[in-house]
Design a protein that fits this description.
Number of strands: 18
Helix content: 10-25%
Largest sheet: 10 strands, mixed
Strand content: 25-35%
Order of helices and strands: EHHHEEEHEEEEEEEHEEHEEEEHE
Number of helices: 7
CATH architecture of the largest domain: Beta Barrel
Shape: globular
CATH class of the largest domain: Mainly Beta
Length: about 350
C-alpha cells in the first residue's frame, strides 16, 4: 500500500490499536461482588479473542507480503537509469539500480524509498537529472516504460550520498502515482559480516544478478542471471573491499543487485541441512568487469567486481532521517525514453 503523493511505502499492520484491560478499568470489573469470577473469565476471554484476532490480522499481512519471492520482488524493484554522457558528447550513459525501503523511524512499518546504484553511473551522467525507466501496467497485462526525470544534482551539487571507499551511490526518491512501483525490499536484506558468517557463504556458492545487459529487457523488466562466488575471504567485508563473481559484465549491468536465495542449505559447521528456513539477502551490487593486471595485458575477464552490501548500508546512513525536499522525481510524462524497443 502506498501513501499518495509522498516518499513513503507503508503496510496495514494494526500496531496503533490496543485494548486496555489493566489498572482502573480492570479493578472496576473485579469490584462487582458475586459476579467477580464470571467477570474475570470474561476479561480473560476478551483478551484471548483480541490477541487471537490481532495475530490473524498481522499474520495475514505477513503472508501476503511473502507472496512475491525475493527474485520477483527484486526484479520489480530494479530499474534502468540513464542520462547524457559527460565523457562523450551526444552519447547516453546507462546503468541499473534498485529500491530498498528504509524505516521512517525505528520499528516503523512505513519506509522511505531509497534508490541504490553504482556511483560511477551517476558521475558519468551530465547535468542535474537522470532518467529512471519506471514501468506501468497496461490493460492487457503487458508493461510499458514510464520514464521519469530524477534530480541527482542541484546547481551541480550532488543530491546523493556515496562511499569514499566503494563504488556506491544512494538517494531518497519520490515515486509518482502513475507508475506501478512495488513495495521496496527491506534495507535489512543488505547483509552484514555477521549475516555472511551465519549463512556460511563460501566460494562456489551460486548467486543471482539483476540488470539490463546491453540494454536488454523483456516487458521493461531486468534480466535475471546466475553467477558463482569466486573469491575468498568474504569477511571482514571492509577489509576485503570487494568480491569476485564468475560472471561477465555487460554495459548496463553495473548497479544491479547481487543476492542469494537458499532453501535446504547445507551447513558445514553443523554437518546438517536446513530444510525449514529460507535464507535470502543482498550481498552487494555489480561495480564493473575485472581486467587483467598482468604487465602489458589489457584483457577483460569474465569476472565481475561486486561492492559488499556493508558499503551500501553505510552510504544510506549518511542520508539522514528523511529526504531533502530538493531531491525528487519530476513528472515529465511528455518525455520519451532515449531508446525505445
Amino acid at each position: 500500500m502506498y501513501v499518495a503523493g509522498d516518499w513513503l511505502a507503508s503496510d496495514v499492520r494494526l500496531n496503533h490499536y490496543c485494548l486496555d484491560l489493566s489498572s482502573d478499568s480492570a479493578r472496576s470489573i473485579d469490584d462487582i461482588g458475586p459476579l467477580r469470577p464470571f467477570a474475570r473469565k470474561l476479561k480473560r476471554s476478551i483478551v484471548f479473542l483480541f490477541l487471537s484476532s490481532f495475530w490473524l490480522l498481522t499474520s495475514s499481512w505477513e503472508y501476503a507480503q511473502q507472496l512475491d519471492d525475493i527474485n520477483t520482488s527484486l526484479m520489480r524493484c530494479t530499474f534502468r537509469i540513464s542520462g547524457p554522457s559527460n565523457k562523450t558528447p551526444g552519447e547516453i550513459s546507462y546503468g541499473s539500480g534498485f529500491l530498498v525501503g528504509v524505516p521512517t523511524e525505528p520499528n516503523s512499518v512505513r519506509s522511505w524509498y531509497v534508490f541504490v546504484t553504482a556511483a560511477h553511473i551517476l558521475r558519468d551522467i551530465e547535468g542535474n537529472t537522470a532518467t529512471i525507466d519506471l514501468r506501468r501496467k497496461n490493460g492487457d497485462g503487458t508493461y510499458s516504460d514510464y520514464p521519469y526525470l530524477f534530480q541527482i544534482r542541484n546547481n551541480f551539487i550532488n543530491l546523493y550520498e556515496t562511499s569514499p571507499e566503494a563504488d556506491v551511490a544512494v538517494a531518497f526518491i519520490n515515486l509518482p502515482f502513475a507508475a506501478e512501483v512495488p513495495s521496496p525490499v527491506p534495507v535489512s536484506f543488505l547483509v552484514s559480516d555477521e549475516r555472511i558468517s551465519q549463512v556460511e557463504l563460501h566460494p562456489g556458492d551460486n548467486l543471482f544478478v539483476l540488470g539490463f545487459p546491453l540494454y536488454t529487457s523483456l516487458n521493461t523488466f531486468p534480466v535475471l542471471r546466475s553467477a558463482i562466488l569466486s573469491s575468498y575471504p568474504l569477511v571482514p567485508a571492509k577489509t576485503v573491499k570487494h568480491f569476485y563473481l564468475n560472471f561477465r559484465v555487460f554495459p548496463e549491468n553495473s548497479g544491479g543487485p547481487v543476492y542469494f536465495d537458499y532453501l535446504g542449505r547445507f551447513y558445514i559447521s553443523r554437518n546438517t541441512t536446513d530444510f525449514a528456513n529460507r535464507q535470502v539477502g543482498i550481498l552487494g551490487l555489480v561495480s564493473n568487469q575485472l581486467s587483467s593486471s598482468a604487465s602489458g595485458m589489457d584483457e577483460s575477464l569474465d569476472i565481475a567486481e561486486v561492492v559488499p552490501a556493508i558499503y551500501i548500508t553505510e552510504a544510506i546512513s549518511k542520508l539522514g532521517g528523511h529526504p531533502a525536499p530538493a531531491n525528487t522525481i519530476l513528472p515529465v510524462s511528455s518525455v520519451k525514453s532515449s531508446h525505445s524497443k
